[in-house]
Amino acid sequence: MEFNVHEGTKGIMEMAVKEEHSAKKVGSGLVDVFSTPSMIGLMENTAQTSIKDSLPEGYGTVGTEISVKHMKATPIGMKVRCESNLVKVEGKKLLFEVKAYDEDGKIGEGTHKRYIVDQKKFLENIQK
């Protein structure tokens, strides 16, 4: 099956950092700053959202790999913006570049791989 997903597709998402996103709250550290797992979640969500409307009914993507650097701490209350760019499409395999910024500049960057799946078949297969 062909998919209407194209290299160069970009996504942007923004969020305000709340206490529930802190390293202390998610268990990845002891400090009340934006956690790495929360940043990664934002990166994955930005990537998958950027192409979801280009997929046929019943199809979605699953994350298969992420490699990122979290370069700077962001305090609770600050806004964070994530940008994704689909840089490579190989059939059902997708490679995104992802970057995150807070109000003071870049806080993270890396790559994220996703795979296009038929959601019903995917769920049936993991139940076996």
How would you classify the quaternary structure? Answer: single chain
CATH fold annotation: Thiol Ester Dehydrase, Chain A
Overall number of domains: 1
CATH class: Alpha Beta
Domain Fluoroacetyl-CoA-specific thioesterase-like: 17-119
Protein name: Thioesterase family protein
Pfam family, one: FlK
Organism: Clostridium aestuarii
Folded structure, characterized:
The protein contains 3 helices and 5 strands, in the order E-H-H-E-E-E-E-H. With 128 residues, the chain is an alpha+beta fold. It has a single domain, classed as Thiol Ester Dehydrase, Chain A (Roll). It has a 5-stranded antiparallel sheet with strand order 1-3-4-5-2. The longest helix has 17 residues, at 36-52. It comes from Clostridium aestuarii.
Describe the structure concisely.
InterPro entries: FlK (IPR025540), FlK-like_dom (IPR054485), HotDog_dom_sf (IPR029069). The protein has 128 residues and is of the alpha+beta class. The protein is built from 3 helices and 5 strands.
Q: What features would you highlight for this structure?
A:
23% helix, 5-stranded antiparallel beta sheet, Thiol Ester Dehydrase, Chain A, 128 residues, HotDog_dom_sf, Thioesterase family protein, 5 strands, FlK-like_dom, alpha+beta
List the helices and strands and how they pair.
Blueprint: E1 10-16, H1 23-26, H2 36-52, E2 59-70, E3 79-90, E4 93-102, E5 105-118, H3 119-127
Antiparallel strand pairs: 1-3, 2-5, 3-4, 4-5
Protein name: Thioesterase family protein
Pfam families: FlK
InterPro entries: FlK (IPR025540), FlK-like_dom (IPR054485), HotDog_dom_sf (IPR029069)
